[in-house]
Write a structure and sequence with these properties.
By secondary structure, the protein is an alpha/beta fold. The chain has 3 domains: 302 residues, Rossmann fold (3-Layer(aba) Sandwich), CATH 3.40.50.300; 113 residues, Domain 2, N(10)-formyltetrahydrofolate synthetase, CATH 3.30.1510; 83 residues, Formyltetrahydrofolate synthetase, domain 3 (Roll). It has 20 helices and 25 strands. Strands 1, 2, 3, 4, 5, 6, 14, 15, 16, 17, 18 and 19 form a 12-stranded mixed sheet that branches. It has a 4-stranded mixed sheet with strand order 20-22-23-21. It has a 3-stranded antiparallel sheet with strand order 7-12-13. Helix 14 crosses helix 15. The two termini are 13 Å apart.
């Protein structure tokens, strides 16, 4: 089969004005970024239309390092829905350059189920990530300058919480010292870099309701504590307006298309293992204003992406999914059934039968949120008919709808079974109102305990002395009503990335707590998870090149 980039290059694209017109958007309203990409104004968001649209969430079982294929399924499902006469828009996150040039590759789908132009989406796109990076680092520079310029007046910071960000995987930047050398180089201090998808500016952009809410949230960003113990914010710096200027275009969602001309809105890109893992609420709401069915995804496994989608994004935006699609693969199930990773492409019914326990826990978890669940079996060339039949029968025994997705190879035609299942299930058995894992009024510790026990299947949660100190600060600031965002490995329900399957009886150790007063959630950092990833021994960058004027190696 042809590579993703070859398929993308050979697929004829419609002018973006045609895609927009199909949604009822006039050419005068959109802002073209070339022939095939456009920014859309927030004025297109219509609350009445949103109330009538059906939102479909795509999530997955605990993934392998190659992923489970949620984006491919999301795009494929949108193709299949349109093929059966259900007008649909797919709303996705923007890819990060970190994994694109690192281990996992791009995030624009795959095969004949992609969003296009794939190369531009995976690379610089409309510059949203660069704008977020610049806005975040501008705050850091302005804060350092404020400290430097006002030190003669006795101003000093007891603690600086604001780091810097960069959209690359660079382990050397995790912990750094700034301001070395002459006194004119600034005040010496410890700092570090996170990856841009972990930036609070990213989270703010993805949760803001409009431009005014964006400004309010930016003003509220907690930068640290002054020498006399007072919180110091962006509002105290007096630069929120300047930061909003940098984000003026980035806040507008991006319109592109799929391999079959289905409209796609791609906007925002927080990771689900270190952030809240969902595309922007603005993009989702805009998509729901434009189509009766909207498909969106949440990052990594359902214990991370789906939980945060419900407990953070839906809680804050009022969105209510009509249905959740849980994606599974035989390779993922066999890995969770004890089959060595290097052998998961080989037939192994015993491993598969053991591995479905991981699928079952995710199903129970999603149902615990009040969701109607269907299982999508994302088919690979190495899958056997016997394996597929077993998975179908297993889901039938649970009373769960099951469909095979082959959109990677066949485009929309390979997703029609899934599309019909989704459409029929929504009509016959839509989800109940969301039941969150915890209440707003619960303490941060109680919220963490609830997620660990109800979602991860663990016994409890512990906090290091440093983390407990931050919990005390949260209480002093009156922020205990914020939802939590647990940053942990995506490869296990636990914080141990090698504990596959359905581990039980474990504790989650919280080693650090980050107060996101602008995005209005608390990040709890569990285990060894890092907010600035490193590159693997053989990064994807070694495969990417320009050959005869064409980009090769993107996936």
């Amino acid at each position: 089969m042809k590579s993703d980039i070859e398929i993308a290059r050979e697929t004829p694209l419609k002018p973006i004005r045609d895609i927009a017109q199909g949604l009822g958007i006039s050419e005068e309203v959109m802002e073209p970024y070339g022939r095939y990409i456009a920014k859309l104004p927030l004025s297109l968001i219509d609350e009445e239309k949103i109330s009538k649209s059906r939102l479909i969430l795509v999530t997955a079982i605990t993934p392998t390092k190659a992923g489970i294929g949620k984006t491919t399924v999301s795009v494929g499902l949108s193709l299949g829905m349109n093929r059966i006469g259900k007008k649909t828009v797919v709303a996705l996150r923007e890819p990060s350059l970190g994994p694109c040039f690192g281990m996992k590759g791009g995030a624009a789908g795959g095969g004949y189920a992609q969003v296009l132009p794939m190369d531009k989406i995976n690379l610089h796109f409309t510059g949203d990530f660069h704008a977020i990076t610049s806005a975040h680092n501008m705050i850091a520079a302005l804060l350092d300058n404020y400290i430097y310029q006002h030190q003669a007046e006795g101003f000093a910071m007891r603690e600086v919480l604001w780091k810097r960000v960069l959209d690359v995987n660079d382990r050397n930047l995790r912990y750094i010292v700034t301001g070395l050398g002459a006194k004119t180089n600034g005040v010496t201090g410890e700092s570090g870099f996170d990856i841009t998808p972990a930036s609070e500016i990213m989270a703010i952009l993805c949760l803001a309701k409009d431009e005014d809410d964006l400004r309010r949230r930016i003003e509220n960003i907690l930068l640290g504590t002054t020498i006399d113990g007072k919180p110091f914010t962006v509002k105290d710096l007096g630069v929120a307006g300047a930061i909003c200027v940098l984000l003026r275009d980035a806040i507008k969602p991006n319109l592109v298309q799929t391999t079959e001309g289905t409209p796609a809105i791609v906007h925002g890109g927080p990771f689900a293992n270190i952030a809240h893992g969902c595309n922007s609420a603005l993009a989702t709401r805009m998509a729901m204003s434009l189509a009766p069915y909207v498909i969106t995804e949440a990052g990594f496994g359902a214990d991370l992406g789906a939980e945060k989608f419900y407990d953070i994004k839906c809680r804050k935006s009022g969105l209510q999914p009509a249905l959740t699609v849980l994606v599974a693969t035989t390779q993922g199930l066999k890995m969770h059934g004890g089959v060595p990773v290097e052998a998961i492409k080989e037939p192994n019914m015993e491993g598969l039968k053991e591995g479905v326990k991981n699928l079952d826990r995710h199903i129970r978890n999603l149902q615990g949120f009040g969701q109607t669940v269907v299982v999508c079996f994302n088919r690979f060339a190495t899958d056997t008919d016997e394996e597929i039949a077993f998975c179908r029968e297993h889901c039938a025994e649970l009373g769960i709808g099951f469909a095979v997705n082959n959109a990677f190879n066949e485009g929309g035609a390979g997703a029609e079974e899934l599309a019909r299942l989704v459409a029929d299930t929504i009509e016959q058995n839509p989800s109940e109102p969301l039941r969150y894992a915890y209440a707003d009024e619960d303490s941060i510790e109680a919220k963490a305990q609830a997620v660990v026990q109800k979602v991860y299947g663990g016994k409890g949660v512990t906090f290091t002395p440093g983390a407990r100190k931050m919990l005390q600060k949260i209480e002093e600031l009156g922020l205990t009503h914020y939802p939590i965002c647990i940053a942990k490995t995506q490869f296990s329900f636990s914080a141990d990335q090698k504990a596959y399957g359905v581990p039980e009886g474990f504790n989650i150790a919280i080693r650090d707590v980050v107060i996101n007063r602008g995005s209005e959630f608390i990040v709890l950092i569990a285990g060894e998870i890092l907010r600035m990833p490193g590159l693997p021994k053989v990064p994807q960058a070694e495969k990417i090149d320009i050959v005869n004027g064409e980009i090769e190696g993107l996936s």
